[in-house]
Amino acid sequence: MRPDDILPTYDRVARGFAKRRDRTLFERRWLDRALNHAPGRKVLDLGCGPGKPIGSYLQERNCDITGVDGAGSMLVLFRENLPRARAVHADMRGLELGETFDLILAWNSMFHLSVDDQRAMFATFAAHAHHRTTILFTTGPNAGEAFGNVEGETVYHASLDPEEYRGLLNENGFLTVDFVPNDPTCNGHTVWLAQYGRAS
Hints:
The chain has 200 residues and is an alpha/beta fold. The protein has six helices and nine strands; from the N terminus they run H-H-E-H-E-H-E-E-H-E-E-E-H-E-E.
């Protein structure tokens, strides 16, 4: 299993993944915090998947959503679930949409990339950010590689050391608002919230 296997895997398992995806919206507290920090409601969702529950919740909060996913089968479901949203079939790596957003999400998506590709993502975040753009993303709690399982398929995960993530944020114009490893209020997710050009 390699990082490059992720998109074909999610292409194959999209409908099963969507059917069994947790819909309790345990992410709500972090989404609300991100919206409270963001200067507006224009949202870029990187690795948007089927659009439920996160995309649909944000749409209920009057967000204008652009969903990006490299797995075409996920984009089909995203379009079905959020017909008013914009859907872009693209790999998040090296993405160049030529516009900026108020909120950028990479929830349970960036950590499927190799460590070098994750390092490069922070320039991609910055290229789509303006003053006070907020980013919300998940990682592992410590540096290392791991393997998970989705619909019977093995999936790759990797994380950098938290201090390296913090440094990459700073180098690309973001300051950390909050970092909670293994957040017990969010099903054990390790969550980062940061803001572009935020005054210290």
